Amino acid sequence: MGRYALGLSREAQMSVTHQWRKEQGARLQGSRPLDCSKVQAPCVIPIPRGGYRLFYTAVGPAKPYATCQGYILSAFSGDGLDFRTEPGIRLAPQPDLRHMSLRVLAPTVTRCIDGHWRMYFESRGPADQSMVICSAVSADMLHWEHEDGIRLQGLDGVGGPRYLPLPDGRGRLYCFRSELVTSDSDDEGPRRSQSVISAVSSDGLNFEFEPGYRMRDNQTAFDSAGITAAEVIPPQTPDDAWTMFFSAWQNVPDGSVVPLHPSQDPAATANGLREDFAAASIASDMAGYRSRIFSACSLDGLTWQRDRCVIEGEGYGGEGLDAVHAEDMSLVRIGNGKHRMYYAACDGSGNWRIASAVTGSVLILRWADTHAL
Fold first, then answer.
1. Structurally, how many domains does the chain consist of?
2. Which of 14, 21, 23, 232 has its CA at 20 to 30 Å from residue 147's CA atom?
3. Cα 289 to Cα 282: distance, rounded to the nearest angstrom
4. Residue 318 falls within a domain, yes or no?
5. CATH code of residue 190
6. Residue 2 domain-assigned (yes or no)
7. What's the domain range around 68?
């Protein structure tokens, strides 16, 4: 039996780096009518000619139509720290497609064999329409053409995609899957579960779900409100393991009054919440929820063992860009064995920005005793 077919042994000495250093200031914050209301869900891509492009989800008063809840914008940086926004919208919802009529978010971008770029993104319509994952292609990462069809759909919705090329030429999407779970307790009603799953494709268009879950939610108090995204760093040497970073939400304290998020409100158009999506969604975000970023490790990229929290803010009333929320991370290698993590951050006043943290190598799970594996 191959070594990667086995679980983690007691003799395997794990040492997942958790000394992330938060970098001062925001990498990006709302600064124009297209993004001044809310920015989230970064995806940073190194550009072959040099520099970095940051794709992000945003909404602002210059949105293309009144009920639009969000679209994908971009910014460029030569050093990965100072980003300048680029004009226009990279990808917008399409009102004539029900599953994509209100919001597109959480982009993940990969280079295709022919040199073009493909973007996978979460697509949302009305509250009674399940979230799906769609795609678009581009020759220059600035002008994107939506591809027909749905790349991935299932249960009560899928989203938060992260694409990973595999050594055998296929690609894997890690994403969350949402489902309504009935409680065993008579005192509790059904809750919405949001766990990490995966799907693979040989052509980038047709995906098949892989059996089981990569990471289940509701395993601790810190992920009691679900997992929003999972980014995976594959092994670089035979002694490395796979490393996952995932963002999880903690539920509100008992007795909290939580405003209904407009994306979950079937009457959002009638009551005007879609027109003021940012304010209504931030009110829900700040109702007592917390989010943090955690790490996990695996021998095969499918079965994962949790490690620890790597990014956490001070909480309500605390200081820092990420006092309340840290989620939806995107990692890039920046040289000298270091990586930079970009993530969506929300402070104690409900302001969302893109923050960053840096560390040494994250490809750090090594096995001291491989004979036991």
1. 1
2. 232
3. 11
4. yes
5. 2.115.10.20
6. no
7. 8-372
pLDDT tens digit string along 267-280? 766 655 555 889 99
Q: Does 128 fall in a domain? A: yes
pLDDT of amino acid 336: 79
In a domain, 142, yes or no: yes
| Alpha-carbon distances of 49 from 52, 140, 182, rounded to whole Å | 9, 12, 51
Task: Report the amino acid identity of residue 320.
Answer: G
Collect the ranges in the chain with pLDDT lower than 70. 1-18, 182-191, 268-275, 360-373
**pTM value?**
0.90
- Residue 150 CB partners (closer than 8 Å, separation 6+): 99, 123, 132, 133, 134
Residues 132, 138 contacting (CB under 8 angstroms): no
